[in-house]
Amino acid sequence: MRTLQRLVLASVVILAGTAMAAAAEDVLPPRRKGPLLRWLQALTYRQTYVAEATVHPSVPAHGFNVRVYFSPGLVADLRAGRPRFRKGAAMVKELYFQGTEDVVGWSVMRKLRRRSGGRGTGWLFYETLDGRNRGAFFGRGIGVCTGCHAAGTDYLLSSFRP
To answer: Is residue 157 part of a domain?
Structure first.
């Protein structure tokens, strides 16, 4: 009887862990370009991510005005002052270009590995300047992204701390 109870308890723990992992995965940007763009267009990240207070000026590479949203895992790492972020850390940068009202495109970073790698290959980068996937930058350790982001804390350049 005790063996059966242990098996049932172990099964419940495994199922709970699987459900928690699936829920955590649901808040992360998808790893494929098509689903990622649809996830962004639905503004899904706004439901669970922590946002910077306002749209603000940015470096020209991302247009003139942006607003960044940080995943719950990245927020926890930033609050703890960790110099290396966990696998699954993510951020979404809304691109407004010269305006401040309409999102025109997005930049996304999602950490796929525990280690970032010397060239940022542990990070998935994505950027669409027109809200579509034609001409979008997409991939791991993309030089046009890592060229600037390597100067940040584990490739994150933002000085925002929640």
So the answer is: no
